[in-house]
């Protein structure tokens, strides 16, 4: 790539990555201002600086721009020769369900023999290769580098989680999407967006990015869904949901520790290859738990049909899908059952509790990690949901924890966040225990469990090590049981 007769060797917004011949784009972040690192970038050999500020430097070209984030996307796009135009790109956005839906689609396409990539919260996948990521939607330079890598490795389809942060901060600027999927919109990330209106507007960007004739898959049961389509008359829309008005719905739903339903295409559908599919019904079985996963599956199946995957192949891949870590994941099933879930906002807690309602258990126990460094509002709302569901589910015992032994500085629970949680539960006479650290909380809960009981490990980052802690406690207790059994009934050593 050449800019103003200067050959560009790389593009970055991170001064630490700058090498000779690189372009450095100065971004203003929430905590740091890239303009403070321009001198460092120049010292490392940056040949061009892009900034929104009035800055003059000797011996290096400085270009003032209106939007540095969009410029970063444009530069990365051009540097890697417009990779998204050489792929089929699926974007999935929503408050909840992004991770499960993207992994379902990835698994489905890969099972059908399509070379597939994934960019998401847990990782980046390129067929069978896996790479770790730090953000749900990485920065533009990281995304474009992975898209370019996928093109080189002959990937046909890439499915991406697209967060509201990523959309608002233009991390996906310039990417050409073929399909955009909406899962749901609930109150979340208000410490970043400040208002629900801004949150919805950020989500809407994904659908605004769709070129003429491309496809939006919309959850019609969501109250905010149609707002995503405002002034988007140039795109094709397919709706799903559990109501009668949706193009795609489900009937004969049966949920417990497995889920089954009938997938219903109520009106004809045209695939990306131009094949017309008539209305039909087909049985779906899955190990995924809960009503919310029926929505995720409906979205994924719809996407698969549009990409010309036969329904029998889709159903088989869903049946064999092992699930996603920390998404209603059964981590232990023996005399009692333990389920782990990355509950992180009121809607995700509601979804979990609705799922539990349809399950069979003797007594229910909960260990809940308070959400750290996200403010008192989100924790107040989560505590309210716990308060409301406590009598409905007849929770036997509940332990609230700050997970102080496992949270890093980004997720430390403040005194205010802890106090609001305790205040909401206490003033409503909800019986619970508070424990500062995670390990002691889980150990107490596991020691209460008896045959037929169920334990839920709930919470976002604070509970990320919950399953690991829980299993180590169970293994240790089983080892102690064996030792005690041997002491009671020692092996008889025959006399010689």
Automatic annotation (TrEMBL):
Q: Where in the cell is it found?
A: Cytoplasm
Keyword tRNA processing assigned to the entry: answer is no
One Pfam family per UniProt: Mur_ligase
What residues does the Mur ligase central domain cover?
A: 92-303
Q: Does the keyword Iron-sulfur apply?
A: no
GO cellular component: a single term: cytoplasm
The pathway that the record names for this protein is:
Cell wall biogenesis; peptidoglycan biosynthesis
Principal localisation: cytoplasm
Coiled-coil stretches are none
Q: Where is the Mur ligase C-terminal domain?
A: 326-460
Q: Which residues form the Mur ligase N-terminal catalytic domain?
A: 7-80
Alphabetical keyword list: ATP-binding, Cell cycle, Cell division, Cell shape, Cell wall biogenesis/degradation, Cytoplasm, Ligase, Nucleotide-binding, Peptidoglycan synthesis
InterPro entries given for it? Folylpolyglutamate_synth_CS, Mur-like_cat_sf, Mur_ligase_C, Mur_ligase_C_dom_sf, Mur_ligase_cen, Mur_ligase_N, MurE/MurF_N, UDP-N-AcMur-Glu-dNH2Pim_ligase
Record Gene3D superfamilies: Mur ligase, C-terminal domain, Mur-like, catalytic domain, MurE/MurF, N-terminal domain
List this protein's GO terms for biological process: cell division; cell wall organization; peptidoglycan biosynthetic process; regulation of cell shape
GO MF terms here are: ATP binding; tetrahydrofolylpolyglutamate synthase activity
NCBIfam families in alphabetical order: murE (TIGR01085)
**PANTHER family reported for this sequence:** MUR LIGASE FAMILY MEMBER, UDP-N-ACETYLMURAMOYL-L-ALANYL-D-GLUTAMATE--2,6-DIAMINOPIMELATE LIGASE MURE HOMOLOG, CHLOROPLASTIC
For this chain, the family text in UniProt reads:
Belongs to the MurCDEF family. MurE subfamily.
Supply the name of the protein: UDP-N-acetylmuramoylalanyl-D-glutamate--2,6-diaminopimelate ligase
Look up and give the organism this protein is from: Anaerovirgula multivorans
Organism classification, top ranks? Bacteria, Bacillati, Bacillota, Clostridia, Peptostreptococcales
């Amino acid at each position: 790539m050449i800019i103003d007769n200067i050959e560009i060797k790389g593009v970055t917004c991170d001064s630490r990555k700058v090498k000779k011949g690189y372009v450095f784009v100065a971004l203003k972040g929430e905590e740091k201002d890239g303009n403070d690192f321009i001198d460092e970038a120049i010292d490392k050999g940056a040949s061009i600086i892009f900034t929104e500020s009035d800055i003059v430097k000797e011996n290096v070209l400085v270009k003032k721009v209106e939007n540095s984030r969009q410029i970063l996307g444009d530069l990365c796009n051009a540097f890697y020769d417009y990779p998204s135009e050489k792929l089929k790109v699926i974007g999935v956005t929503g408050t909840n369900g992004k991770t499960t839906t993207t992994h379902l689609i990835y698994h489905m396409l890969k099972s059908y023999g399509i070379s597939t990539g994934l960019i998401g919260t847990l990782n980046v996948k390129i067929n069978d290769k896996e790479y770790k990521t730090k953000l749900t939607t990485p920065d533009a330079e990281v995304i474009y580098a992975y898209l370019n890598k996928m093109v080189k490795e002959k990937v046909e389809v890439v499915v991406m989680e697209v967060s509201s942060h990523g959309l608002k901060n233009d991390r996906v600027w310039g990417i050409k999407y073929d399909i955009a999927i909406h899962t749901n919109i609930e109150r979340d990330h208000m410490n970043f967006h400040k208002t629900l209106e801004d949150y919805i507007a950020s989500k809407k960007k994904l659908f605004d990015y769709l070129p003429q004739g491309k496809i939006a898959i919309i959850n019609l049961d969501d109250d905010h869904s149609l707002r995503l389509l405002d002034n988007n008359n140039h795109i094709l829309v397919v709706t799903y949901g559990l109501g009668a008005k949706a193009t795609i719905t489900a009937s004969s739903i049966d949920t417990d520790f497995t889920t089954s339903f009938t997938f219903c295409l109520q009106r004809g559908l045209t695939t990306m290859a131009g094949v017309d599919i008539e209305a039909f019904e087909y049985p779906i079985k899955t190990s995924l738990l809960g009503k919310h996963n029926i929505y995720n599956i409906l979205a994924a199946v719809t996407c698969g049909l549009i990409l010309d995957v036969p329904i029998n192949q889709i159903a088989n891949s869903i049946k064999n899908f092992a699930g996603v870590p920390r998404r209603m994941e059964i981590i232990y099933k023996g005399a009692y059952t333990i389920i782990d879930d990355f509950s992180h906002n009121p809607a995700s807690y509601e979804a979990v509790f609705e799922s539990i309602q349809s399950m069979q258990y003797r007594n229910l126990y909960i260990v809940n990690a308070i959400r750290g460094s996200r403010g008192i509002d989100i924790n107040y709302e989560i505590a309210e949901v716990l308060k409301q569901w406590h009598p409905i589910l007849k929770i036997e015992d509940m332990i609230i924890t700050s997970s102080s032994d496992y949270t890093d500085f980004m997720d430390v629970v403040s005194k205010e966040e802890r106090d609001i949680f305790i205040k909401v539960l206490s003033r409503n006479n909800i019986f619970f225990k508070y424990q500062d650290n995670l390990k002691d909380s889980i150990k107490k809960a596991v020691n209460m469990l008896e045959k037929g009981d169920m334990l839920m490990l709930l919470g976002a980052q604070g509970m990320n090590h919950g399953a690991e802690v829980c299993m180590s406690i169970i293994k240790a207790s089983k080892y102690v049981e064996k030792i005690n059994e041997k002491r009671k009934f020692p092996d008889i050593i025959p006399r010689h």
